[in-house]
TrEMBL record:
Signal peptide: none annotated. This is S9 family peptidase. InterPro entries: 6-blade_b-propeller_TolB-like (IPR011042), AB_hydrolase_fold (IPR029058), Peptidase_S9_cat (IPR001375). Keywords: Hydrolase. It comes from Thermomonas carbonis. One of its GO terms (biological process) is proteolysis. It comes from the Bacteria.
Length: 693
């Protein structure tokens, strides 16, 4: 569901590095007669092909159908390109970023104007920029220091403006502005003196609803009272706070869509009559939440919904597009999605991908056949990519853990998703933790499988997408039952012959980094080594240093992780902090951190590295001075993965591509433990850090 909110959902995966990107669909039917005898008999896929800049990504069409656009490199830095819709050979770059690159952009309805967002060095103070294609002028529409812009609305009814939340007045709370795209002038719509978490506007830019966090962890729903104030019209209880939210209005303002788990378990999509308040069920599923929707460009009415249990499946709720969705399904056995549509709805840009096939973008003229435009990573065409196999693992207390297993070619001769022989395994833990792992192309899992490892992704309790009971089962269970689920999944893999008990590594980012540290401290005998990427080591210091604009979500942290305002809460947080148990670490650990991370700040890594050094426990610490919560610059991501690859080879015995030139252009520094990974210290001697904010 596309949400037009002033407060972005921080209950989402904190480290989103999934690149839904390119290549022709690969059939799974023609299985080899026997698996290769050794992983060395399988072609090694270079890190550059997996983690370098994609050739083209994020393909869109302008609302008027005049232009195609995408993100591609200019001198190695990702920028926005535009071409006439009927002549991609005339493409030109329309942005000129020379540092981190641009990863988020979208079209306005103002003629020849697109918008993009960019932060500095990973600080997540995203500014909103406009680009006038005719004049070439780029304008910062949120040009204020220490300000995070959040787009609330772009509409064909107001083509010359955009609704934007900005927190320059008060870093905790976003005021709502209408910004003129021609002049950059902003006009105050709502001054957020009531500490609203989010505003919801209709396509006519009328603010129809707001939400406000309560001290019990729930939220109040408010509407304007017609007298200049606000009135409470409903509530979202704490139990539903991660699975219920308003999802926007139709253009005529007569219908409010609501993703709602109140009075049920899984979140369903309802249509609410704004005059009578009557609710009509649009779509639901007993095993998974409604995860996305497709809206008609002019009316903003929902035409299709997505449900993602094991795999994402789209269902039309408007007969007008049923035949279109059938046509798109025929592209291949993987997953399709609609990336953008023209305002007249005659032309769609569609993406297609499968686990062993990065994304390909198509132009679909309704009533015709999809026309292939671009493969995002054509360098992977013909490479030995492998399938991802959905699994359902039962936890020790009976919960169903939707998981995904990826096997190297050496372990699955008949391509049936069942291991023929045990191989080393990486337990790859997702971030959030209020997010989930999904089926699909994942460069990290393909990389690890190509190096000889099985990869297991587990949706442990606390993950979202499977109903509120499953999500809420993670409350208070960091390093508790959430971690038990990961251990149960490892036991499942050992019992199923996927791996051996002494051949498992744990790796992840954000919460996944915390899970790595917890794995090496709370269950030190389970894992042979760990890779922690921007993971918190001390939950008390984590919650005392969250970004100010997360104020509306603080009660969620307090009730789902632990409350640092009470003695009992502080004690729980200390007990569940890996730093408290650092002396129990006996296995090799690699830590990666961005110096500008606003969520899990650098001291989270510094303090556990220092504690390990004081106890003479070996650790390798990699730091990037121009990164934040994850490694956005491809040069830095590739550099860290080069270190990780050598580290895992030493630990698990897989193969490793030499570091070679993969530090080129990166800002990598290694404050501790460079001698702990073969070839790392030597590679650093000839490297000059390139810092680009």
């Amino acid at each position: 569901m596309h949400r037009t909110l002033i407060a972005s959902s921080i209950a989402a995966c904190l480290l989103s590095a999934c690149d839904r990107a390119p290549s022709e669909p690969t059939a799974q039917a023609a299985a080899p007669a026997a698996a290769p005898a050794s992983i060395n008999d399988v072609e090694l896929i270079p890190r550059e092909a997996l983690f370098g800049n994609p050739e083209r990504a994020a393909v869109q069409i302008s609302p008027d159908g005049k232009y195609l656009s995408w993100i591609a490199a200019v001198d190695g830095v990702m920028n926005v390109w535009v071409a006439p819709a009927n002549d991609t050979a005339k493409a030109r770059s329309v942005t000129a970023d020379k540092a981190r690159g641009i990863r988020q952009y979208f079209w306005s309805h103002h003629p020849d104007t697109l918008l993009y967002m960019r932060d500095t060095g990973g600080d997540e103070d995203f500014h909103l920029f406009s680009v006038d294609l005719a004049s070439g002028t780029t304008r910062d529409l949120s040009d204020f220091p220490k300000t995070r812009a959040q787009v609330v609305g772009v509409s064909h009814l107001h083509p010359g403006a955009v609704l934007v939340g900005m927190n320059d007045r008060d870093p905790k709370w976003h005021d709502l502005y209408s910004v003129d795209l021609a002049t950059g002038q902003r006009t105050l719509v709502q001054k957020n003196t009531l500490e609203f978490a989010e505003y919801i506007a209709d396509p006519d830019f009328k603010v129809r609803m707001a939400t406000k966090a309560r001290t019990d962890g729930g939220s109040d729903l408010l509407e304007p009272d017609g007298k200049g104030g606000w009135k409470i019209v409903g509530e979202i209880p704490f139990a539903d706070s991660l699975t219920s939210f308003p999802g926007g209005y139709t253009t005529d303002g007569k219908t409010l869509y609501f993703i709602d788990s109140r009075g049920r378990d899984t979140a369903a999509l309802f249509a609410v009559d704004t005059t009578t308040g009557a609710k009509t069920l649009v779509a639901d599923n007993p095993r998974a939440d409604v995860s996305d929707s497709l809206r008609a460009p002019t009316t903003n009415k929902v035409q299709a919904v997505a449900i993602n249990h094991l795999k994402e499946e789209w269902k039309s709720v408007d007969p007008a597009i049923a035949a279109d969705l059938d046509t798109l399904k025929a592209i291949g056995p993987g997953e399709t999605w609609v990336a953008s549509r023209t305002q007249d709805d005659k032309t769609w840009i569609v993406g297609y991908a499968a686990a062993e096939s990065p994304a390909v973008f198509y132009r679909y003229t309704r009533g015709g056949k999809p026309e292939e435009l671009f493969s995002v990573r054509p360098a992977l065409d013909g490479k030995p990519l492998v399938p991802m196999w959905p699994q359902e693992i039962t936890s020790r207390d009976g919960l169903n853990l939707v998981s995904y297993l990826t096997l190297p070619k050496t372990a699955d001769a008949n391509n049936d998703g069942k291991a023929d022989t045990p191989v080393p395994m990486v337990l790859l833990v997702h971030g959030g933790p209020w997010g989930r792992d999904v089926y699909g192309y994942n460069g990290t899992t393909q990389w690890l499988a190509n190096r000889g490892y099985a990869v297991l992704n587990v949706n442990f309790r606390g993950s979202t997408g499977f109903g509120k009971q499953f999500t809420n089962a993670g409350d208070g269970e960091w390093a508790g039952k959430m971690h038990d689920d990961l251990i149960d999944a490892v036991d499942w893999a050992v019992e199923g012959g996927v791996t051996r008990k002494d051949s498992v590594a744990i790796m992840g980012g954000s919460y996944g980094g915390y899970a790595t540290l917890a794995g090496l401290t709370f269950t030190p005998d389970t894992f042979k080594c760990g890779v922690d990427i921007v993971g918190p080591s001390n939950l008390n210091t984590l919650l005392s240093t969250i970004p100010p604009y997360w104020a509306a979500f603080f009660e969620q942290f307090a009730k789902r992780v632990g409350d640092p305002r009470t003695e009992a809460g502080k004690q729980l947080l200390e007990e569940r902090s890996p730093l408290t148990h650092v002396a129990k670490i006996t296995k090799p650990l690699l830590i990666g951190q961005g110096a500008n991370d606003p969520r899990v700040k650098q001291p989270e890594s510094d303090q556990i590295v220092k504690a390990m050094q004081e106890k003479k426990i070996p650790v390798t610490y990699v730091l990037f001075p121009d990164e934040g919560h994850g490694f956005a610059r491809p040069e830095n991501n590739k550099a860290f993965n080069a270190v990780t690859e050598g580290f895992l080879a030493q630990c698990l015995g897989g193969r490793a591509q030499p570091i070679g030139n993969d530090f080129a252009g990166s800002s990598i520094s290694v404050p501790a433990g460079a001698d702990g990974v073969s070839g790392l210290a030597e590679a650093l001697k000839s490297h000059t850090a390139a810092v680009k904010n």
